[in-house]
Amino acid sequence: MTGQSIPGALFIGEYWESAAVTFLFVLGGYLEARTLARTRSALKDLLALAPVEVVVRREGDEVTVAPHEVEPGETVIVRPGGRIGVDGSILGGRAAIDESAITGEPIPAEKQEADSVFAGTVSHDGYLEIRAEGVGADTTLARIIQRVEEAQEAKAPTQRFIERFAAWYTPAIIVMALGAYALTRDAPLALTLLVIACPGALVISTPISVIAGIGRSARGGILIKGGEYLETAGRIRAVAFDKTGTLTQGRPEVMTVTPLAGIPALSAAENTQPRQRLLHWAALAESGSEHPLGRAVERALPADYAGPRADDFETAAGGGISARWRGRRVEIGRPDWLGERVDEWPDAAAAALEDIRERGETVAAVAVDGALVGLLGFADRIRPEAVEALKALRATGVKRLVMLTGDHAASARRIARELGIEEVQAGLLPEQKLEAIETLQRESGTTAMVGDGINDAPALATADIGIAMGAAGTDVAIESADVALMADDLGKIAEAVGMARATLNNIRQNVVIALLTVAGLLAGVFANEVHMAGGMFIHQVSVLVVVVNGMRLMRARPLRQRSALAAGRLAPAA
Ligand SMILES: Nc1ncnc2c1ncn2[C@@H]1O[C@H](COP(=O)(O)OP(=O)(O)OP(=O)(O)O)[C@@H](O)[C@H]1O
Ligand SMILES: [Zn+2]
């Protein structure tokens, strides 16, 4: 960018000056390249986690191969202290696994048979046999690396603005230099102007901060899709949360089982209590469902209960499930949704519903062939880290926290009170969540939505920032969320916002440094105080100051430790 000065200096016969300028130019370029490379090496740290070899069992023998040579379905063996080379599930053994490479969580996770493991994580103690499911480029680690690479390339709005500015500014400087020459016939002055006004520091001010911010976040298990989202995340004013699985553990338990009089048995042979009959019908209706309430019904039944499965079913997002079985229609869902699908709603049911709601439980009603047969009440616990995590989020400057839920108001308020969330919008259908987000945007500005992405997809897409939690292992979340938190940890939201704010500040500082330097130098040239070599030197120094300032983001205190501290899971280091 400053290359034009060398022939320029030669032309005016200032040989010493031309040598000095050449030296500074080469040195500056070298330092700039080196620092940028170091910033990107945050990514190399991640790459270094990919193990070089993997032990697989083939025809009874243990063979050592490269990670991408493992076939999905093969058994991989990991010894204590070994790095896991594939994504997969544990076939045998148990171990404490350090997943910090993926999730940023410093505390090892205890894992055993049937649990999922990720390439790049380390088994601390136990011996493990793992069924390979994702290998080579098809692992969470590989996806993270790819995402971060893409994100660091994507331009932030400020950067695009600055590039437009530079496109206009550079010709303006040339015109100014020509004008200065025309007026003064002073070639050194004109050339000095040309050289020092070049917007080098300004052009790298934003990318250096964005690359550092995204790299630093990735090391803490926070994937930010690009500079644009980093900038937007730094401006978040309101955060909306889905309830189940986001603010709560997403593992509800059946607390209340209220069958109504005359509930039929599943079959003539079934000789059971009404309470069990109700659970059996509910389990049949939920047999094809992924919904947390469906899993809760399953857990409420004895482990050896193997009831019939629905022949066919249909889910109504935010409403419930309608299943078909041997010509019968079995339905479970929100009382108001089911209310429209049954012939009558007896007084006994209304009273039972009131009862369950008063306890703050989530209610699902069950109907068979259009007749209401009973009600179920569920309770879910808030996440252990939730209270601290929301406090930390408020501390970053996000003043408005809102719960958006399809559950009814009494249950939602019980959870909200425990969490210290004042604003609750209950009984929402997926499209009403979307409208609620639009209202938040109008009233408060930049709005983020945190959700599971199943029936919150429209709201997540409408929000300025869609945040997915516990994204490790779910490639859809990694691909679609604007911010994907690898760990299933609410504390990461405050970290992400904090990091984004730090990056925004850093960008602003860099822009100010760059502009002040150019303005100061221009004034100096006109006052005849600054000459080419000196001006060139100061200009090059300003580029380095900007680079070093951006690099500070990389060294931001370990985010993961701060969040663990905030969640009360780590004692502060003495
Ligand atoms: N499969 C199902 N089984 C039972 N009830 C269901 C089912 N699907 C939906 N419901 C009912 O609809 C309500 C809202 O459903 P859903 O979980 O889809 O919405 P949500 O807004 O994501 O809720 P939350 O805020 O609790 O996550 C539930 O509280 C429940 O009463
Ligand atoms: Zn939900």
UniProtKB/TrEMBL annotation:
The keyword Transmembrane applies. SUPFAM superfamilies: Calcium ATPase, transduction domain A (SSF81653), Calcium ATPase, transmembrane domain M (SSF81665), HAD-like (SSF56784), Metal cation-transporting ATPase, ATP-binding domain N (SSF81660). Residues 49-149 form the P-type ATPase A domain. It is found in: Cell membrane; Membrane. Coiled coil: none annotated. The keyword Transport does not apply. Its main location: membrane. It holds the Pfam family E1-E2_ATPase. Its EC number is 7.2.2.12. Keywords: ATP-binding, Cell membrane, Membrane, Metal-binding, Nucleotide-binding, Translocase, Transmembrane, Transmembrane helix. It catalyses: Zn(2+)(in) + ATP + H2O = Zn(2+)(out) + ADP + phosphate + H(+). CDD domains: P-type_ATPase_HM (cd02079). InterPro entries: ATPase_P-typ_cyto_dom_N, ATPase_P-typ_P_site, ATPase_P-typ_TM_dom_sf, ATPase_P-typ_transduc_dom_A_sf, ATPase_P-type_domA, Cation_Transport_ATPase_IB, HAD-like_sf, HAD_sf. The chain crosses the membrane at residues 15-33, 165-183, 189-215, 511-527, 533-553. It is an enzyme of class 7 (translocase). It comes from the Bacteria. Belongs to the cation transport ATPase (P-type) (TC 3.A.3) family. Type IB subfamily. PANTHER family: CADMIUM/ZINC-TRANSPORTING ATPASE HMA2-RELATED (PTHR48085), CADMIUM_ZINC-TRANSPORTING ATPASE HMA4-RELATED (PTHR48085:SF5). This is P-type Zn(2+) transporter.
